[in-house]
Amino acid sequence: MESTRLLVSDLDGTLLGDDESLSQFAEWFESRRPRWRLVYSSGRLFPSVIEAVRSTSLPPPDAVIGGVGTEIRDYPDGASLGNGWPSDAVSWDVSTLERELAAFPELERQPEEFQSPFKRSYYAFDLLPARLEQIERHLGAAGQRVNLIYSSSRDLDVLPEGVNKGTAAARLAREWQIQPWQVFVAGDTGNDAAMFAQGFRGIVVGNAREELRRIQAPTIYK
User: Fold this and answer.
1) How far, in Å, CA of 105 to CA of 186, rounded?
2) Which CATH number goes with the domain that contains 14?
3) Helices 94-101 and 129-141 meet at what angle, rounded to 10?
4) Residue 156, in any domain of the structure
């Protein structure tokens, strides 16, 4: 019996953005069910992913990883998956986090629709690596161990330590008993980079930003 394979793909800029290519992907994928399972991994939260599926030719997924890895939900009912994910967010305190981030005037809080209990998102244009390290150290000194995801030279997502698209995909693959070499991931920006660090087979799409293109590994295809 052929083992199940899993495709975990970003949405915006990866599958969304070219209607003709999306239709071709949908036809390709539907011909491979049920040997393949499909998960959308996005910076969007679950309701926004549902809307994208309903308003485009995206194939219905088996599950959704939303909020840059901070939520894992069954599709379409929205039931939580991942055994209480993110269960390891022990030091996460939103009030402390936002108070400490106010010390950095270049950070502009994104609208409420982009925030969630385990994700705080900011606009931060052209941040240098040294500044990101400074922000992380500052939060650590305040007892907030975090994972900073910076992408497109604009979007800064602040997540609990150890939580990202890659670790969320790994948790779901284990729950579904799918081996890492049977998992394929696809993305286009820096907030997808963590998916390429889990031993999965990676697909860097043709329009990917340099921040993702620079990743090198024998199992990554460009």
Assistant:
1) 34
2) 3.40.50.1000
3) 130
4) yes
